[in-house]
């Protein structure tokens, strides 16, 4: 059902990262193809956010290589990642509260002639973009400080699409959202896949992951711990990979409540 | 981010046709047809003057006071001193306020940029002193040409500012400490440069003397500048409205443009009249022209250019700016460079007023007045919010008070206390309006 290109757009080969005495990532491998949604899951502290930050240039990697369209590239600062075509929506939304919606959408890629901002073109494109994404906010000219949490989230996601990126990274995009907004964001993720973007989705919400992801890459204590196709992998297998064991409190509990949990999960 | 929990859920009522079904089975993406993104809860301003008035009162109640307190304060100051001394609004007095505002006001423009960045520059006064000393030593003692020595003085301020910025941005020393060290260090350099001489007088007819001593006596100058300013203002508003209309974006109604232009025109021509016509009028001071030029350029840079946008972004959320690919260090270094440059340029005006460079130029309350002007004018001390024009408004308030108190013969020590009280009042108003804005959801 999904067309997947032969060469991954982005590939991490043996990536390691340490902060002082903590080895956060060890020999991590990850491949993202165009038109593919890869869910990156793992427990708190598994290294998901750090991995994403290495791709987006916030933390340069210590060892390993990052390949873009098959050739190795250096990503040492956010600008490198942007130039390649990586757009990131962070968990802490990374919006400037004092700037209005338009300014935030175009931050870092302002439309301009010479160095003078073209506010009108930016406002026009911002409105078009928000319209096509069915995003509703009171006005594109109010400071982001005046928006609600959900509105900030959709603005942050919309902002990732301004530069027409090849890879979009969403770090916990639905964590702070209500039911309606979660569904909208998942819609948005599927629309990104249809348009041929590769999407990396970090989420703790298995329902979200199973709803939109094609593959699930599991991180545990900074290492790869499984790479599954969502279509033919059970919920339990993924949970086991996340927790790192097949016999533990989680699986025992699930054995006890197997049927109940399954129906609950489906109903959800 | 802290108000995530407090804010209500976003609009859901109008979007139901876009999404279907429960959370785990989202609708196919194709169903999302574009719908006009106007939130039904948005308070839209009505067309015409009535809408303008309701919008205005709503903003006031929401705590968005803007320049209103300062303007009201200025009117009160003018009335009080005019009652005390009938000469307060005379031509020479107004010209005096304009000229004395210029030098410190230009320095205040520099500090506005630093404050927008969320930092502070305590070295303004000392850098002004170094600028004046560099000019005096080059021009008067060593005979370097007039223009070149002025340029070199400004460049020295720029380099000092860039050095501050380097230590702040690259090394990570807090700006407070870097510029505090600069405050001491550069005033030492200033005294060392001046050498044995306590003061070096500005030669008559030199650029620096003319900075504050030259007046355009031709009446056409003041009226012409007022006319150009009004036409440029109206033209930019009309052009903007036309372009926005062409792009099908909401634009200012004509009535608002007429109203704004009328207010600006009255202000400009009243000032031009007072400078030109009454007894003792000397015409348009060059200092005021230069100050206005700095203001217009700085305002354009802050609001309309990429650099200005980046400064606001770094001041609002430095980490967000960094992740957006903005070179935060570079912006910080450049802003301190601008601040140093304008400090040195302002220092030349101060030197011009006091007849030349001295060992103590820029010391005393210079720094305090500069920061006070920016804050009184409405620039936030907490970063991310501010207007270049606040340098003008705030400095006019301060100089009006000083001029008025001088005219009614108030002692220096009383002046300090009153200026201090005005600064405190400005910050109190800022804090209260910020709190009101928070409860009104606008900050």
Automatic annotation (TrEMBL), chain A:
Pfam families linked: ABC_tran
Listed Gene3D superfamilies: P-loop containing nucleotide triphosphate hydrolases
TM region(s), chain numbering: none
Matching InterPro entries: AAA+_ATPase, ABC_carbohydrate_import_ATPase, ABC_transporter-like_ATP-bd, ABC_transporter-like_CS, P-loop_NTPase
GO molecular function: ATP binding
Domain ABC transporter, chain residue ranges per copy: 10-246
Keyword tags: ATP-binding, Nucleotide-binding
The keyword Membrane is annotated on this UniProt entry: no
SMART domains: AAA (SM00382)
Domain of life: Bacteria
Database matches in PANTHER family: CARBOHYDRATE TRANSPORT ATP-BINDING PROTEIN MG119-RELATED, SUGAR ABC TRANSPORTER ATP-BINDING PROTEIN
The protein, known as: ATP-binding cassette domain-containing protein
């Amino acid at each position: 059902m999904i067309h997947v290109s032969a060469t991954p757009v982005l590939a991490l080969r043996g990536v390691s990262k340490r902060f002082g005495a903590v080895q956060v990532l060890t020999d991590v491998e990850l491949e993202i193809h165009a038109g593919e949604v890869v869910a990156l899951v793992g427990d708190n502290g598994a290294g998901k956010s750090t991995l994403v930050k290495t791709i987006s240039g916030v933390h340069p990697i210590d060892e390993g290589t990052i390949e873009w369209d098959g050739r190795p590239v250096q990503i040492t600062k956010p600008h490198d990642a942007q130039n390649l075509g990586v757009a990131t929506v962070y968990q802490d939304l990374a919006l400037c509260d004092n700037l209005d919606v338009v300014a935030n959408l175009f931050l870092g890629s302002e439309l301009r002639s010479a160095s003078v901002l073209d506010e009108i073109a930016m406002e026009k494109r911002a409105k078009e973009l928000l319209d096509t994404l069915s995003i509703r906010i009171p006005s594109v000219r109010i400071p982001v400080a005046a928006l609600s949490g959900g509105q900030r989230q959709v603005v942050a996601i919309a902002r990732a699409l301004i530069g027409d990126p090849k890879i979009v990274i969403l770090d916990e995009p639905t964590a702070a959202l209500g039911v309606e907004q979660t569904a909208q964001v998942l819609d948005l993720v599927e629309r990104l896949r249809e348009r041929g973007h590769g999407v990396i989705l970090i989420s703790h919400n298995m329902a979200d992951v199973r709803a939109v992801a094609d593959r699930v890459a599991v991180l545990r204590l900074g290492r790869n711990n499984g790479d599954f196709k969502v279509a033919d992998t059970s919920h339990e297998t993924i949970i086991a990979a996340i927790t790192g064991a097949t016999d533990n409190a989680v699986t025992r509990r699930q054995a006890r409540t197997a049927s109940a949990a399954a129906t609950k999960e489906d109903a959800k | 981010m802290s108000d995530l929990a407090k804010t209500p859920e976003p609009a859901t009522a109008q979007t139901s046709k876009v999404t279907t079904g429960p959370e785990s089975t989202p609708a196919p993406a194709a169903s999302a047809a574009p719908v006009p993104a106007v939130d039904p809860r948005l308070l839209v301003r009505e067309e015409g003057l009535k809408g303008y008035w309701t919008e205005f009162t709503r903003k006031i109640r929401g705590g968005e006071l803007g320049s209103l307190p300062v303007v009201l304060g200025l009117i009160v100051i003018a009335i009080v001193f005019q009652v005390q001394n009938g000469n307060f609004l005379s031509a020479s007095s107004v010209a005096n306020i304009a000229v004395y505002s210029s030098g410190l006001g230009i320095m205040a423009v520099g500090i506005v940029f630093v404050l927008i960045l969320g930092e502070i520059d305590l070295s303004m006064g000392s850098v002004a002193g170094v600028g004046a000393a560099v000019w005096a030593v080059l021009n008067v003692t060593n005979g370097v040409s007039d223009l070149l020595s002025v340029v070199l003085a400004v460049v020295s301020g720029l380099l000092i500012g860039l050095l501050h910025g380097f230590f702040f941005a690259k090394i990570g020393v807090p700006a407070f400490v870097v510029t505090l060290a600069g405050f001491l260090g550069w005033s030492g350099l200033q005294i060392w440069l001046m050498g044995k001489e306590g003061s070096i007088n500005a030669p008559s007819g030199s650029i620096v003397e003319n900075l504050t001593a030259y007046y355009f006596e031709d009446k056409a100058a003041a009226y012409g500048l007022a006319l150009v300013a009004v036409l440029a203002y109206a033209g930019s508003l009309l052009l903007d409205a036309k372009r926005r209309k062409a792009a099908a974006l909401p634009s200012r109604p004509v009535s608002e443009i007429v109203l704004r232009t009328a207010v600006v025109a009255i202000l400009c021509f009243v000032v031009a009249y007072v400078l030109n016509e009454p007894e003792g009028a000397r015409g348009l001071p060059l200092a005021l022209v230069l100050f206005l030029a700095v203001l217009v350029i700085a305002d354009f840079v802050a609001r309309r250019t990429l650099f200005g946008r980046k400064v606001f972004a770094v001041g609002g959320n430095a980490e967000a700016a960094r992740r957006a690919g903005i070179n935060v260090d570079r912006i910080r270094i450049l802003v301190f460079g601008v601040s140093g440059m304008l400090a040195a340029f302002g220092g030349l005006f101060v030197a011009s007023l006091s007849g030349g460079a001295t060992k103590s130029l820029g010391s005393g309350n210079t720094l305090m007045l500069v920061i006070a002007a920016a804050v009184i004018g409405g620039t936030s001390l907490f970063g991310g919010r501010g207007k270049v024009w606040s340098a003008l408004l705030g400095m006019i308030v301060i100089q009006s008070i000083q001029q008025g108190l001088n005219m009614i013969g108030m002692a220096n020590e009383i002046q300090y206390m009153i200026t201090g009280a005005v600064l405190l009042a400005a910050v109190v108003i800022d804090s209260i309006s910020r709190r009101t804005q928070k409860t009104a959801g606008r900050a």
